[in-house]
Amino acid sequence: MALLNNIAAISTVILTGALVLSASVEQSSADTLPTRTELCGKLQLQTQHAITEHAEAKRAAKAKALQKQATKFCASNKQAQGIRDYAQALKLLGVQPVDD
If DSSP codes are grouped into helix, strand and coil, which group holds residue 97? Predict the structure, then answer.
């Protein structure tokens, strides 16, 4: 009987260790979000593409002005403001900003 209790205890420890390990692997993959600088670059490309695709939209001029302002913000270490402006420009064009 003692042998069965030891085997059960060892199995529980192994299972707990496996769960902790898998949780830490999931956490590390979630930590690979893009930096603000990387997000500025992605949004800049997406906004440029959207402006080209929607050049005839009535809000294209406003989106282009926001893009220009966002580019300046991102270049001057004000990435959060730049990201917001890129997102607003995309919204004006009816495009969902990248989310990774």
Answer: coil
Report DSSP state, residue 32: -
- Phi first, then psi: what are they for 76, rounded to 5°? -110, 35
- For residue 69, give the nearest of 79, 57, 54, 59 by alpha carbon: 79
CB 46 within 8 Å of CB 89: no
77: left (phi over 0), alpha (psi -120 to 50) or beta: left
Instruction: Answer yes or no: pTM beyond 0.70.
Output: no
CA distance 56 to 43: 20
Q: What is the pLDDT of residues 24-36, one digit of tens each?
A: 555 555 568 889 9
